[in-house]
Amino acid sequence: MIRLILNILWFIFGGWLSGLLWLLGGAILAITIVGLPYTAAAWRIAGFSFWPFGKEVVSRESLGMSDVGTGGVGLLLNIIWFIFAGWYIALSHLLIAVAEFVSIIGIPFALKDLQLAMLALAPVGKTVVEKP
User: Fold this and answer.
1) Per-residue pLDDT of the chain (132 residues; tens, 9 = 90+)
2) What is the pTM of this model?
3) Which of 18, 23, 110, 114 has the most CB atoms less than 10 A away?
């Protein structure tokens, strides 16, 4: 019940915008040839941005998934992502988290923004799973 309330509050106070921006970014990436490998990661992050409570970010390798997002190719893709998009997306989530930490009621939301910031730094090779 708490997760549902937190997700509804998150969605109302900005989660919808964050998720839509990640969806739009993924769609723009899908249009380009070079951005195509990042599209799935952006859309996974969009789902997490819409409704983050009750979910966690894990490495695809830890789940036994071996694909382009793991290993050396994934590292290269994450470096390119960090240079062209990740650092400023992460910075925006970090600034929002600092503002949320100021109020005691905003701490759970700040923690989710910090998770989104970490995810924005290197999204390739990560996935979002439901917490038990």
Assistant:
1) 889 999 998 898 888 988 898 898 888 888 988 888 788 888 888 889 999 999 988 887 776 666 655 677 788 888 888 888 888 888 988 998 998 899 888 899 999 999 999 998 988 888 888 887
2) 0.80
3) 18
